[in-house]
Amino acid sequence: MAETTQYLLFSLALGVLLVGGVGLFVVDTGSTSPDPVLFEDTVTMGVTLENEPDGEDIEIPKAQVFYSQYDYVVGYHGLERFVDDRQQPGHQERFGYPIAVYVSDFSETDAELTDQGYPTADGRLGWTDAESAAFVVGSDAETPAGETVMPFSDQDDAAAFAEAHGGTVLSWEQLLESEFEIDDADAIRERVDERHERADDQVATSQTLADRPETVVVGDDAATIQDAIELAPDESTVVVPEGTYEEHVEIDRPITLSGDGDATIQGDETGTVVSVTAAEAAVTDLRITGVGNTTRPEDRETTAADEGSEDVLEMAYGQGDAGVEIENGNETLVENVTVETPANGVLLRDSPDAVVRNVTVYGSDSWNDGYMGVMTMRSPDGVIENSRFVDGRDGIYTHRSHGLVYRNNTLERNRIGVHLMYTSDVLIADNRIRNAQTTGIDVMTNPEHNAIVGNEIQQTSRGLLMDGSRSYVAENLITDTEVGLAAGAGNSIYENNVLAGNVDGIQASHLLPTNQVVGNDFVGNYRHASARVGVLRIWTENGAGNYWHGAVGTSDGTVLDRSYSATDHVDERLHRVDGTPTLARAPASDALNALEGSVSGMREESIVDTAPLCEPSNPDLLEQTDWEAPDRDCR
After folding, report:
1. Among candidates 173, 171, 266, 280, which has minimal Cα distance to 225?
2. CA-based nearest residue to 172, from 223, 132, 207
3. Where is this region: Disordered (predicted)?
């Protein structure tokens, strides 16, 4: 039996060797360079304009690179991104060497800069060979991510642009040696504490709104809440004594509306109950019921021309009834408020720097009938913390609301717990998400620089779906899902997460091998990891990788001497099928395992950890699950 098994393994290895060239870019050293392709047909990396409403008028300089190891073309938004990536350790091992590089050609396009420094061009940009182009570095030209390199096919055009907008003209060889300040995932990791500190300061500042002097008391000084609001001077507090008040109110000045005891504002089940249209207003210590059930206005029909427009997105997601609606209200506060709503709980529209804390929102039992616990539409730099969102559509939904801090919240039975659209630079930390119908945290529409840290996601269909780039995902506990973590954000760090008891622990869904995946614990998953697309990924950094329940080998005290491949037909069964550890140690299997990093036919959709950890990296997190790592002598 053993001889038969070894024979089959050797036969498989030979078969792979024979078909090794299939699926990779075939290099013909005697042929001319490949021609440029449509940029839409490349696999893109770098900054995008998804988060810029006027992005269609901006021309980000681009590069398209034909790599020796791929049969597809890699497209870079921003030449500085290609230069920076090329300089990273291990880049050539992962990608191979560039066979040809083409860059955007701003010659003969009357290149100009917007007030923000974004490049524009009169006419359609063409492509030019990078080796013969001239590049302006250090000019006033920028993208939403910072400085950018301007390429020209004509040296005189480059010199003219530098004279008009500053900068230095470099050759291709000089550009490749240049250094650029790029916010990568390491920088995002370093900013987590800074973001918490900024949020702490913002919350502390907001408390001045809760401490305003009490000047008007409903029932004593005014018959209704609205009368009291109109009577109160700016920078003061309207007190709502215990009881139920059947009315809708509007706050159009910087005052605080605060309940005293069990105070309830009850609407008539039509429209928003509390509307705020002023900066530095506050709503605190109230219960709000009787909210209308409109989630989308019905006074206009969506036409084909509207699809995908900013107007349609706002109509679809940024409207509707709410317990508290704040529009054009900077630095507002909603605190210690409970909302029962068939629509939105708190709706923020064009209201930056808001603080929403200690809020409870009970939505519709069926998410199809409900809406958002907190909706932020173009409301950046807010803090949402220590709150609870039960039922309804999404616990929090964001749209172009960069810089949010969303922490220490509990989300139960939503469709999606946290749903980010067109939103970057967000910290999502220490939230508890359970029984989401579809997804615990869903980061969409190609954002950058998000940090997802310390969250607990349990019993959802999909735990955490990451899109975009240059983000940081760490110390999350994800259990009892169909897909624990879909790692779709490229150039990102995924570290010190625990994925236990899922069908798929992690799905490598980004096409290019640009992510750092280390220090994670995979325990009790049916499949620890799967690769939906792409080529070989090496999930090891500086001689150490991840803990894989079932991995075999001899330990040096920290790592095992046998690599582990979660996508290998033998390795993926080591933790759940008797006899596979013996098969894995067979000489033929070890020989096959060693080929994975070098034989091209075995590189497609593969994951290899060349130094798997002997013990879990995050024992405290793992103790919070129903799973434990098997005993192992790691001395």
Report:
1. 266
2. 132
3. 611-635
Task: Point out the least confidently predicted range of 55-69, 198-212, 405-419, 549-563.
Answer: 55-69
Give CA–CA dist 35/236, Å, rounded.
Answer: 69
Q: Please, are residues 434 and 389 in contact by the beta-carbon 8 Å criterion?
A: no
Least confident span in 135-149, 292-306, 512-526, 565-579:
292-306
d(CA 395, CA 385): 12
Question: How far is residue 175's CA from residue 169's CA, in Å, rounded to a whole number?
Answer: 9
Strand partners, 199: none
Q: How far is CA 251 from CA 110, 359, 375, 490, in A?
A: 50, 19, 19, 44
Give phi and psi for 173, each to the nearest 5: -65, -40
SS3 category, 195: helix
Domain regions of the chain by residue span? 42-181
Q: What is the pTM of this model?
A: 0.87
Helix, strand or coil, per DSSP, at residue 171: coil
Residue with the two structure tokens 């681009």:
62
Q: In this predicted model, what pLDDT tens digit does every residue of 265-311 receive, in sequence order?
A: 999 999 999 999 999 999 999 999 999 999 876 644 444 444 445 56
**DSSP 8-state secondary structure symbol assigned to residue 292:** -
Q: At what angle do helices 587-595 and 2-18 cross, to 10 degrees?
A: 20
Nearest-angstrom CA–CA distance, 116 and 57: 12
Cα separation, 580 vs 613, in Å, equals: 19
Distances (CA, A) of 472 to 106, 476, 492: 34, 11, 6
Confidence of residue 634 (pLDDT cuts 50, 70, 90): confident
CB of 601 closer than 8 Å to CB of 562: no
As given in the structure block, the two tokens for residue 172 are 């291709």
In angstroms, the CA 411 to CA 395 distance is 6
How would residue 164 be classed by pLDDT, with cut points 50, 70 and 90?
A: very high
How many other C-beta atoms can be found within 10 angstroms of the C-beta atom of residue 194?
10
Burial (CB < 10 A; 0-12, 13-18, 19+), residue 47, is buried
Q: Please, is 520 exposed, middle or buried when counting C-beta atoms within 10 Å of its C-beta (0-12, 13-18, 19+)?
A: buried
One-character DSSP codes across 367-406: GGG--EEEEEES--S-EEES-EEESSSEEEEEES-TT-EE
193 backbone φψ class: left, alpha, beta (φ>0; ψ -120 to 50):
alpha
In angstroms, the CA 224 to CA 247 distance is 8
Q: What gap in Å lies between CA 314 and CA 378, rounded to an integer?
A: 10
